[in-house]
Amino acid sequence: DAGVIQSPRHEVTEMGQEVTLRCKPISGHNSLFWYRQTMMRGLELLIYFNNNVPIDDSGMPEDRFSAKMPNASFSTLKIQPSEPRDSAVYFCASRAGQGETQYFGPGTRLLVL
Amino acid sequence: AQKITQTQPGMFVQEKEAVTLDCTYDTSDPSYGLFWYKQPSSGEMIFLIYQGSYDQQNATEGRYSLNFQKARKSANLVISASQLGDSAMYFCAMREGHLKPLVFGKGTRLSVIA
Known about the structure:
The structure holds 2 protein chains of 2 kinds.
Chain A: E1 5-7, E2 10-13, E3 19-24, E4 31-38, E5 42-50, E6 53-56, E7 65-71, E8 74-79, E9 88-95, E10 102-104, E11 108-112
Parallel strand pairs in A: 2-11
Antiparallel strand pairs in A: 1-3, 3-8, 4-5, 4-9, 5-6, 7-8, 9-10, 9-11
Chain B: E1 4-5, E2 10-14, E3 19-21, E4 24-25, E5 32-39, E6 46-52, E7 60-61, E8 64-69, E9 74-79, E10 88-96, E11 103-104, E12 108-113
Parallel strand pairs in B: 2-12
Antiparallel strand pairs in B: 1-4, 3-9, 5-6, 5-10, 7-8, 8-9, 10-11, 10-12
């Protein structure tokens, strides 16, 4: 079975540019999570969806960040405009249902110059 | 207040020895789940083991076991017979209730020495 798929795996961009990160959850999973990992702050939850509906976006740093889940098999995290402090590894994870384990994608390593 | 505390930033263990990675948690929810993930240098997050708050027995998965002490709110990971491939970051995480996402500790970097 395919795991959580994220693209791109690496992204290098210049400050001010728009960045779009993509995630395909495991088929049949109904919860999707976006996390950000930095050395300073560790793993932080940005936003999560249940059945394609955003449940909690309190972790989104600011209005420059937005996330969508138009259907059960696809989600995007967009940063516009990007800033150097957004440089991090962004993980997408999915979960089959209540009380189940979260499985992570390989992550997108973002570098904003 | 931190919900998950991992007090050991780094640990060393000799190959073939056992090692315990500490994790304490804080919650008032009677129903919760505790998880351990491994993050090797390649960066992926690998699920290792799960313990539910109502589970009577400690969870085990191969060489991994979870030493669950509910009264002390601790969920330590024990790795037996360490291998060089066990060198990685290890994260403890908690889910409160059944719907919420995982909250992670800061991690412990384990180095296995030949």
